[in-house]
Amino acid sequence: MAKLFSDREIRAIAVFLPLAGLLIIALMLVRPAADPEAARRAEAEMEEALPADSVVMSHFDPNTASLDDLRRLGLTKHEAVSLLKYRAAGKVFRIPEDLTLCYGISDSLYRRLEPWVRIGRKYAIAPEKYRTGRILPEPLAPGPFRIDTVSARYLRAIGALSKRQAEAFIRWRDLSGIYDMEDLRECYVVSDSVAAALKPYVIFPERKARPIEQPVELNTADSATLRSVVGIGPRTVVAIMHYRERLGGFVRAEQLAEVPGVRERNYEKILKQIYCDSCKIRKIDINFASPKVLGKHPYIAPQALRKLLKARQLKGGWSTAGELVEQNILTREEAARLAPYLQFGSDSGPADE
Fold this sequence. Notes:
This protein has helices spanning about 5-30, 35-45, 65-70, 75-90, 105-115, 120-125, 150-155, 165-175, 180-185, 190-200, 225, 235-245, 265-270, 290-295, 300-315, 320-325, 330-340; strands at about 145, 200-205, 215, 275, 285, 340-345. The protein is mostly helical and about 350 residues long. The strands form 3 sheets. The chain has a two-stranded parallel ribbon. A two-stranded parallel ribbon has the order 3-4. It starts with 6 loop residues before the first helix and ends in a 10-residue tail after the last strand. Helix content is about 45%, strand content about 5%. The longest helix has 24 residues, at about 5-30. It folds into 4 domains: about 55-120, Photosystem II 12 kDa extrinsic protein (DNA polymerase, domain 1); about 145-205, AF1531-like domain (DNA polymerase, domain 1, Orthogonal Bundle); about 215-280, AF1531-like domain (DNA polymerase, domain 1), CATH 1.10.150; about 285-350, no CATH class.
């Protein structure tokens, strides 16, 4: 039977095995024994917070605060080191809320620190990104400026907007006008953080309110006319026209409160500048209108629509809104709201889709 190993290989193995055993024993002797107590002490030291009477709350910039500054604010060593590591990775705190992005800062700690955060001017408004591969100059320190005359170049220079954003902002402003902070935030290229950073420097033009003796008729007004009403911004104009189309027109000016985007603080101001001509509304023949037309109306809920279509298929139609209540298709409140938009004449033919 042939040998598995030659004599030479057997001699080599006989020499190697004792040497390997000696090496393993030496490594075990040199390696220090694990000390669980020392590990617990190190962990406790990292989590140790300063005594309450040693904490001094003061304004600080998370972009420049040192380890000692953070410790004096009551952060543990672990929390302070986490913030410094986050910053060392190239992250910049532009607004106080950016602190929540740091994995070592809990929500409760952020709520305690937030009143004391003061972002330096160098960091408060972000400069343009490094898109071209070259380092861009630091942003110009912003000063008071008129929003109706400011140039795209200036908005870029202070680092508020990129080139494309600044150009889009100027087009938006010239088309819609900007008269207050609400209008400024309406612009889709202006984030909340940028709007907040610009707020101390923006000077808005005056806008004279439309005389009350010349109110706007809500059902026939075009977008430009609606935009002239003080309190109605560009987005609100779109929302009003979309809701007016679904509704078929406004019976009462108070229905404007149903439009998404009409805020309570502007509602009373808007009411003084508008009125409604209820003769301008578009009615639905409930006996002939298609399910698509009925389903678009905001006052007809899906459940009521299903009941209505099923009953119409069996009954054939109605002559009054009261019949819809009697048959439990609509509640009295729903019928009262919907009644101005209904007609029951069979001679009108099917409603257009």
